[in-house]
Design goal:
The complex is a heterodimer. By secondary structure, chain A is of the alpha+beta class. Chain A is built from 23 helices and 20 strands. Chain A has four domains: about 200 residues, no CATH class; about 150 residues, no CATH class; about 200 residues, no CATH class; about 130 residues, no CATH class. The longest helix of chain A is centred in the C-terminal third of the chain and has 44 residues. Classes of the chains: A alpha+beta, B alpha/beta. The interface between A and B is medium-sized, with 34 and 35 residues.
Chain lengths: ~750, ~230
């Protein structure tokens, strides 16, 4: 169609506006293709990896060793493998957890290098090796013995290699895993701990548990899905998968609204041409096809560019994910349906909004269109009824301008809200972690050292403050949580209610995340089931504690022991301020407060890239939205601006009238973003909180809010700087030559 | 002399050639006069008005308003000149559609230090009772009244009207002319009226006729009649 020759002329004339729309489409296509493909890639590789390494179904510790593993295996048709492990300090702050190599369950997958053959060879976890600069062929000294690093490995029950299960983030600087041969393990000076790894291909774990409960004593029983080192990856992927749909969808929704507003403006200025084309005999469809070409160019260019960039970034993102989780990239291939989706989705969003706008214009008769006016006689309800008499003229003008086009106002506020949500995400994360660390963690847990013993003891000869715990579940709601028995006068656990008042430890106290998941209130009664023996217990929750880490219940030590049928003074753990002199062979787990703090501090570092990227996207969205909406306003006000110049307004006065009009909507958008961000993040975290043993106290402090607003304001100023040039270019003759639309 | 134009030239580009839009224009005007500028399309009428109004610059020559040579003013000073001394009335009114009548007049009052009372001005143009109406709710004549009020509220010394009746019917056009005459008398405002309509010149003190950028006639109207008597 000859008419289409003008498309590029029009695009070039208002290149900033169309370029902005293309960039937004590109951004959403990029996010869609990249996040989805990378996510699927990680998921696919995870499944392949788990299959290849025969991941365990459960990991257990028993009071006494199993006498005849083979007999048990045959009886219950399961695989059982004992795996020994110990922690070794390889530098002042770095701990290496060394496992012996298994051959039936959870065996290592060699990512790089070769498998161990001799007792002086060792495999390292690759991210730990990379962070601490260990290469294949290097020597590493573990408990006074030198090992040669022969390869890097991944292990299915340590996909997310947390030092302690209470940690929420890996820190490769201070903790890593390694594998040595059985022979080397025999030769080590420490006995360490041993777990039994159970694999039951045909189910039937419950029977094994029952049997062991009767014939032995289960100290620790953890099914694979309760293992945070395993299930964090699912939680993280689930969260990311939601983001992979939500982020592009929000940006595309914004883009489609923006494009609709831009094209409606264009069509409005071209009513006369459209009417003339009608009169010349063009059909509605022919005219519609012409205008759809603009949308086609935006969607196609943005879609193609975004998809290409998205595909180019799949490998870095997959690597980034696999840095988080030690999953080997076994098969790095693309899922083509996401490529197609990434190209088509922009159309799904933009075309309908465009069609609505187009047919709104095309329903009018050629004569009406040729007159160039179809709506001018209408005065909006708000315009008519708003009382501005007491205001100064600049304020009146700005309010009139804001209320002139409600769709435009909506796009602006929506865009700013969206951009501000992205922008504040980093701040939210940082403030929440600070709060978690300072207000929650350090104020609640006053101990410096936490020991978990290998077996229950009756009297504390070591010092410190003894405690007991056992693992429970609530059927159908929570798979795993700990119930702690602590001393009613505990010096090391300090629980407070939501007002910050201390809660007496004579009560049965539930932590906030667990209360939220179980939907319990103070005074409610719940039935909890012991994970080790499946016995049910009914307890009444007295208080909810404002603690964000830990799906825990606290009760007096004697009460828990009584519940479990133990002696009233039995314990398995000790909190202490000083290091205690406990024989190493008695210790199952040992953690210091410093380890926890370090892990928290390490949270922000690996996220810096992604939060930086999100902030960058936020900046662009805000800039584009403000610039396009301001651009539209300038375009619509061309004659007015020209007239202001004739009347003797200075550039500064005109800039203030036109460009500062949107200050209030921008502030509204920003203000709206804060509760919306907290609410949506809360929903997102809640959706996978059941699998994860912590909840984020979503906090944003005043400094962050001010800083966030300042960034947005600078973006606004940058956009104004570009817009000023456009205002400056409008000649005074504009008002003289044109009859008003 | 209140306004003096000395050898004013203005050129414009037509393809590769420079064409005179105004050539050697010189005339003087006393304060409080009504001047009509007549001539066919392209004769340079509007260009002349734009130069006097300070929205365009001469290529050569001088325009003195009082004792200020506006052709030598900086952009900033020219803006202040327009702000303080000039009122414009356009053929198509150029009202801001989403501002009501009162606010459209306030656009000008907002930047003027010597502005007149808005109510008084609206009353004098007969639009006070419609001050809350929007331009779309007004007739052409009413819109032009608002446009005149907007020009007048700054209490300008010079009122420049470019085809003020060009889009109006006879009766309304005559009402507008009467209004301009009233303003001239009440505020002693010097008024330039650019028009195709030769009949309008009968209410002027001075008639300047242009053709192809040159003055072909410049005469004092000795047979001046009141606007009410203007017929065409």
């Amino acid at each position: 169609m000859v008419l289409n020759k003008r498309i590029f002329r029009v695009l070039l004339k208002q290149k900033a506006i169309y370029l902005g729309s293309i960039v937004l489409v590109m951004l959403s296509s990029l996010l869609y293709s990249n996040l989805n493909i990378a996510m699927k890639n990680v998921e696919k590789n995870k499944d392949l990896f788990l299959e290849k390494t025969n991941v365990e179904d459960a990991k257990i510790i028993l009071q006494r060793p199993i006498d005849d593993i083979k007999k048990l295996e045959d009886e219950f048709n399961i695989s059982i493998e004992k795996r020994r492990q110990f922690d070794a300090k390889i530098s002042e702050n770095t701990t290496l957890r060394v496992f012996e190599k298994t051959s039936k369950v959870d065996f290592p997958y060699i990512v790089e290098g070769s498998d161990i053959k001799n007792s002086n060879e060792i495999l390292l976890e690759p991210n730990f090796a990379k962070t601490n600069r260990y290469n294949i062929g290097d020597k590493i000294r573990v408990l006074d013995k030198d090992f040669t690093i022969v390869g890097f490995f991944a292990m299915p029950d340590y996909i997310y290699p947390l030092k302690s299960e209470g940690d929420i983030m890996v820190n490769y600087k201070i903790f890593g895993t390694a594998i040595i041969s059985n022979k080397a393990m025999d030769e080590m000076p420490t006995k360490g701990n041993s777990f039994y790894l159970l694999k039951s291909p045909s189910g039937g774990l419950e029977e094994v548990k029952e049997y062991l409960g009767k014939n032995n004593f289960i100290i620790f029983w953890q099914e694979i899905n309760d293992n945070p080192r395993f299930n964090f990856v699912n939680a993280k992927l689930m969260g990311s998968a939601k983001m992979a749909v939500a982020l592009p969808a929000m940006i595309l929704l914004l883009t489609s609204l923006l494009v609709a507003v831009v094209l409606w403006r264009m069509i409005k200025t071209e009513f006369t041409q459209i009417g003339t084309l009608y009169a010349l005999g063009y059909t509605k469809n022919e005219i519609a096809m012409h205008y759809l070409s603009f949308v086609n160019i935006i969607a196609l260019t943005g879609g193609i560019l975004g998809t290409i960039l998205g595909l180019l970034l799949v490998k870095p993102l997959s690597e980034y994910f696999t840095f988080y989780f030690n999953i080997p990239l076994i098969d790095n291939s693309f899922d083509y349906k996401y490529i197609l989706g990434s190209l088509l989705i922009p159309y799904v969003f933009i075309i309908p909004s465009m069609l609505i706008v187009l047919y709104k214009a095309l329903k009018h008769s050629p004569v009406k269109l040729m007159r160039g006016k179809i709506e001018t006689l209408k005065i909006g309800f708000i315009e008519k009824n708003i009382k501005l008499n007491r205001l100064r003229f600049p304020s009146k003008f700005k309010i009139r301008e804001i209320t002139k086009s409600i769709p435009r106002l909506f796009v602006l506020i929506f865009g700013i809200t969206l951009a501000s949500m992205f922008l504040m995400l980093g701040f939210l994360y940082r403030n929440s972690i600070d709060y978690l660390l300072n207000q929650s963690l350090n104020d609640v847990f006053k101990y410096e050292y936490n020991y978990v013993l290998k077996s229950y003891e009756a009297s504390n000869i070591y010092g410190g403050e003894e405690y007991n715990f056992s693992v429970f579940k609530v059927n159908g709601k929570v798979e795993s949580f700990a119930v702690f028995g602590i001393k009613p006068n505990s010096q090391f656990i300090n629980l407070v209610d939501k007002n910050g008042n201390p809660i007496s430890k004579e009560n049965i106290i539930i932590t906030k995340p667990l209360a939220k998941t179980l939907k319990v209130k103070e005074g409610d009664t719940i039935v909890i089931t012991n994970k080790y023996n499946n016995d049910d217990y009914t307890i009444k929750i007295d208080k909810i504690a404002e603690v964000y880490t830990g799906n825990n219940i606290y009760m007096p030590l004697s009460k828990l022991n009584n519940l479990l049928g133990f002696d009233s003074g039995s314990f398995i753990g000790i909190f202490a301020k000083e290091k205690l002199n406990i024989p190493e062979e008695k210790i199952l787990k040992f953690e210091t407060k410093n380890d926890i703090n370090e892990a928290f501090k390490a949270i922000i570092n690996p996220l810096r890239v992604s939060l930086g990227l999100v902030s960058f996207i936020a900046f662009f969205i805000a800039l584009i939205v403000i610039y396009v909406v301001t651009g539209l306003s300038i375009e619509e006000n061309k004659t007015n601006i020209s007239m202001f110049k004739i009347l003797g307004y200075t550039h500064k006065e005109i800039n203030d009238l036109i460009l500062n009009t949107f200050t209030i909507p921008i502030i509204i958008g920003f203000v709206l973003s804060i509760p919306l961000l907290i609410k949506s993040m809360d929903e997102l975290l809640n959706s996978f909180a059941q699998n994860v043993d912590f909840a984020f106290p979503l906090k944003l402090n005043a400094v962050s809010i001010i800083l966030g607003f300042l960034i947005l304001y600078i973006t606004f100023e940058i956009s104004k700087y570009f817009s000023k040039k456009n205002i400056f270019k409008i000649p005074m003759s504009e008002a003289l030559k044109t009859q008003r639309e | 002399m209140f306004i003096q134009l000395n050898n004013v030239n203005k050129e414009f580009k037509s393809g590769k050639n420079l064409v005179f839009s105004l050539k050697n224009i010189s005339f003087n005007v006393n304060k409080g006069q009504i001047i009509t500028i007549l001539g066919p399309s392209g004769s340079g009428k509007s260009t002349l008005l734009n130069l006097i109004g300070g929205i365009d610059r001469v290529d050569s020559g001088d325009i003195l308003i009082g004792d200020v040579n506006i052709s030598k003013l900086s952009d900033k000073d020219l803006t202040l000149y327009r702000r303080n001394k000039i009122g414009f009335v356009f053929q198509f009114y150029n009202l801001i559609p989403n501002l009501n009548v009162y606010e459209n007049v306030e656009v000008a009052a907002n930047i003027s230090k010597q502005s007149l009372s808005l109510e008084k001005v609206l009353d004098s143009v007969g639009m006070l009772d419609k001050k809350d109406k929007f331009p779309q709710e007004l007739s052409g004549g009413e819109q032009q009244r608002v446009s005149i009020a907007r020009a007048l509220v700054k209490n300008p010394e010079i009122l420049l009207c470019d085809e003020p009746t060009g889009a109006l019917d006879f009766k309304t056009a005559k009402e507008i002319l009467m209004l301009l005459e009233k303003i001239n008398k009440e505020y002693n405002t010097t008024i330039f009226i650019v028009t195709h309509n030769t009949a309008i010149s009968s209410m002027a003190d001075r008639i300047i006729r242009l053709r192809s950028g040159e003055i072909v006639e410049d005469k004092i109207n000795s047979a001046k009649i009141s606007a009410e008597g203007v017929e065409w």
